[in-house]
Design goal:
- This protein is α/β, with parallel strands linked by helices.
- It is 51% helix and 14% strand.
- It has 9 helices and 7 strands.
- The strands form 2 sheets. A 5-stranded parallel beta sheet has the order 2-5-1-6-7, sandwiched between helices. The chain has a two-stranded antiparallel sheet with strand order 3-4.
- It is globular, with a radius of gyration of 18 Å.
């Protein structure tokens, strides 16, 4: 089974690309969705213990939590120490189940793939990217996005130029929905016919 890592900075089209893999029948593990589920489940009491007052109606209030960690690097590290191991464990379970179910390809959608050292979990990394002006226009259209919030997100992310240098496959999402969808279909076919090699076996 081939494990493809999908990553990209904010506003680069990662969620749209992940949806295209899903539509093609490829199992996709969404790290962001996993975190949201953890905030309603296993992580909730742990986060509340570390950040009292963030648990509301049985789940972590993400706005309250963000306010506590967004400008506090030490607090963010405490939060990541709670959440990241749980997300990794969930990803490992997802991959194991997909393998047991006979899947030949899975996608792990990991926003901070390089930043959290997750290259070792995947056979190859697909980076979605776009020109800076396209990225900025997409971000500006997001509801609730503020300058402070964007600055905090970007501060956590590796520069796109460095991600391009490291990635095995690069997909420019500014070429339009149809072109990106075709690229995804071509990539799935290339992986399934052995034309994309695992970096461990290249």
């Amino acid at each position: 089974m081939f494990v493809l890592g999908l990553t990209g900075s904010i506003g680069m089209g990662k969620s749209t690309t992940a949806a295209m893999f899903r539509e093609a029948g490829v199992p996709v593990h969404d790290s962001d969705a996993a975190v949201h589920a953890l905030y309603r489940g296993a992580a909730a009491p742990l986060v509340e213990a570390a950040f009292p007052g963030t648990l509301q109606n049985g789940e972590i209030d993400r706005a309250r939590l963000a306010a506590r960690v967004i400008h506090d690097a030490a607090a963010l590290k405490r939060l990541e120490a709670i959440v990241h191991p749980l997300v990794r464990a969930g990803r490992a379970e997802f991959v194991a189940k997909a393998r047991a179910d006979g899947a030949d390809l899975v996608v792990l959608d990991i926003p901070l793939l390089y930043e959290t050292g997750c290259e070792s979990e995947v056979d190859a990394v697909l980076l979605v990217t776009a020109p800076e002006e396209v990225q900025k226009s997409r971000i500006a259209a997001r509801p609730g996005m503020t300058g402070a919030k964007l600055a905090a997100i970007i501060a956590k992310q590796m520069p796109d130029t460095e991600k391009r240098r490291r990635a095995d496959i690069i997909l420019d999402t500014s070429s339009g929905h149809a072109a990106v969808a075709q690229h995804v279909q071509d990539l799935i076919a290339a992986i399934r016919t052995g034309r994309v090699k695992s970096r461990d076996h290249a």
